[in-house]
Amino acid sequence: MKWTLAALLLICSTVLVSSTQSPFTQRDKAFYADEATINFVRPGLVFKILGHEIAADGTVKVRFRITDPRGVPLEREGINTPGPVSTSFVLAYLPNDGKFWRTYTTRLKTSTWPPTAGRQARQSAADTGGSYQKVADGEYIYTFGTKLPANYERTATHAISMYGNRNLSEFELGINYATENYYFVPDGSAVRRTRQVIVTESCNKCHEDLSFHGGSRKGMDNCILCHSPSYTLGTTVVQNTNPETGNTIDMTVMIHKIHMGAELPSVRAGKPYQIVGFGNAVADYSKVGMPSGANNCQWCHTERNDKAAQKDAWLTNPTRDACGSCHDNVNFATGENHLGIIQLNDNQCRNCHIPQGELDFDASIKGAHVFPQMSSLLRGAVVNIERIENMAPGQRPRITFSLKDRSGKPMAITELLPGAGNARLAFTLAGPTTDYGTGVGTATTRGYVNEVVTATAVTGTTGMYTYTMTTALPADAKGTWTIAVEGRSHEKLLEGTLKETLVQATIPNQVKYVSVDGSRVVPRRVVTTTATCNVCHSRLWFLHGQNRDEIDNCVICHNPSMTDAARRPAALMPAESINFATMIHRIHTGEEQGRDYTIYGFGNVPHNYNHILLPPPATGASCNLCHVNNSQQVPSKGVLPVTDPRGWLNPVQPTAAACLGCHASREAASHALAHTTTLGESCTVCHGPNATYSVNKVHAR
Asked: Of 473, 489, 544, 482, nearest to 513 (Cα)?
């Protein structure tokens, strides 16, 4: 009977599959499955809540449908359709006199974590003790084990959240997840109130596809139902704390603290910020670094967030919980670190902390969180390369450039020359663009030269100058070469006041490509873009002392020949590769690396990246977060072998260097070596775009 029904469904779904566009992307395992498997298994999972009933005794029922992405019904048990489906339900309401969700469904959690074993806390949770009734193919009614209290608010907005998964591991299609949120008012009136300060799309800038707790709970609208402040339901007190650590799991506090991470005053004072989860797994957020900067409230609260019902709450309704979660050294009860001002409630917060004041760095919410480099008070500097001459082999490049402040007013070059504080202006020469790493440079700057502009080397009048480089192009130079500008301005803001601030602001990097032999200009290959990096990082000018902010500039120095040998102490040799593909892969998979990755930088300071973790659920397999135009596919477009003294292979060929940046084991290196001969790498045979083990396929979810 099982396979007879499946066969009938197979016939129906075959027609459906062949007549519509695939609902799967290159990030889904199902995208790569053969047609027969797709037609039989019908991977994917979609929940749809159809309606609800509330009985006189408070019993709640919810009717729902389970389908694949094309609407074909699926069975919970996985008997007549492939893959069992698990489902869970949360029942909550938004009080008419409150702004946070409260769940009727709760659980009592008892700590088994040795330091606090036995401590208990009641938390919001999924329903237990309920029952299912099948009413049609793919349609069911779930009766909650939890009943509504007799005095429940019939005019308040209620929510039912359904989440779960479908296990298709036996078909090599992984585990599919789904979440559905359903809102209603018990008295039958329209839903007029809800809570939505942040939309999921804002989170997904960095988090790819926001999901936690094993992947089954997806989206911010689901998260905030349970992650709310403590409340009382009848005679039951729901603390919503982590009993192991005593930390609240209220979304407002928890998310701010997680993203603040290493910048939390309490963490800097030596107290780690931890949440203990399933199986006593300790999530320590004390090393988290917000890629966009911890001070950048607007990165979450405004970017992609215009659809949020309370999108301006962070500006118009400051609270002790929200602000104190980041500024956790403030004691509102005593006034400590709050100018001695005692705040016993939130009523007066908005009087001082208005949305925006007259000056940057004031007590307003926007003003207090201004990045100095983005201040409206900053003149800044903008350099534009107007003309490049003398770009033939053996010649010294001559660069004519304009210099203006951010408002467009011409600037004097003296404002950027040595002696003007920490201001700096420099030009970089490198080539050819097929792969940087040869041609020019020294023992410490292999493949490029970086020349700082000095007063004796520049000519011109205010706003327009010419600089002739001291380095000549090699006599045998061919193809396309690169000239890049970088640097920073240095100035005081609010000089003479108690808010006086010294600021170094990046001069926007400009990269120009020039043919040195009359051939067609060929820019350096595009693997990722600055805009792609800035989706998470906001501005790349945090790096290298506010000097550099453009990926096309980064790859000049971080080329296949470069290591940290110039900065690494002799006793700690061999050197580490800082080739861009190798370095960026190793940094972004830091916690996943099976090896140490420490780079020595300016001042011979070590920078260890083994604590780095991509914003979950993203992993090192989330190539699409950074790569553009499928540039993650093999073979690599690089042509030079990579110098990697601390790697398993040295030198390592271009494709292997990129892959071994993430796959850092001896076995992976041995595999790469076994498929490299005097003729080159054979990676494409198995891992090419259309091969059995293509990069996209093996990294799919």
From this structure: 482
> Distances in Å between the alpha carbon of 561 and those of 412, 436, 438, 476, 510?
37, 8, 8, 19, 23
**Whether 49 contacts 162, CB under 8 Å:** yes
Beta-bridge partner residues of 512: 483
Q: Please state, in angstroms and rounded to a whole number, the distance separating the CA atoms of residues 406 and 362.
A: 22
Separation between Cα atoms, residue 361 and residue 364, nearest integer Å: 8
Residue 122 pLDDT > 90: yes
* CA-based R_g, the chain, Å: 29
Beta strands of 545-631 (E only): which ranges? 598-601, 605-608
Q: Which residues contact 167 (CB under 8 A, 6 or more apart)?
A: 78, 83, 84, 86, 175
Per the listing, tokens 């039912």 go with: 160
- pLDDT, mean of residues 662-684: 95
**pLDDT tens-digit profile of 569-612?**
999 999 999 999 999 999 999 999 989 999 999 999 999 999 99
Residue 210: Cβ within 10 Å count: 22
Buried residues in 540-562 as b, exposed as e (16+ CB within 10 A): bbbebebbbbbbbbbbbbbbbbb
Show the domains of the chain with their CATH numbers: 1-238 (no CATH), 250-370 (no CATH), 373-529+539-559 (2.60.40.1930), 568-701 (no CATH)
Contact status, residue 267 vs residue 284, Cβ threshold 8 Å: no
What own/partner pairs with CB < 8 Å and gap ≥ 24 does 491-499 have?
491/378, 491/379, 491/421, 493/360, 493/361, 493/372, 493/375, 493/377, 493/378, 494/359, 494/361, 494/377, 499/361, 499/362
pLDDT tens for 260-310 read 999 999 999 999 999 999 999 999 999 999 999 888 999 999 877 888 999
Inter-axis angle of helices 654-662 and 666-674, nearest 10: 160
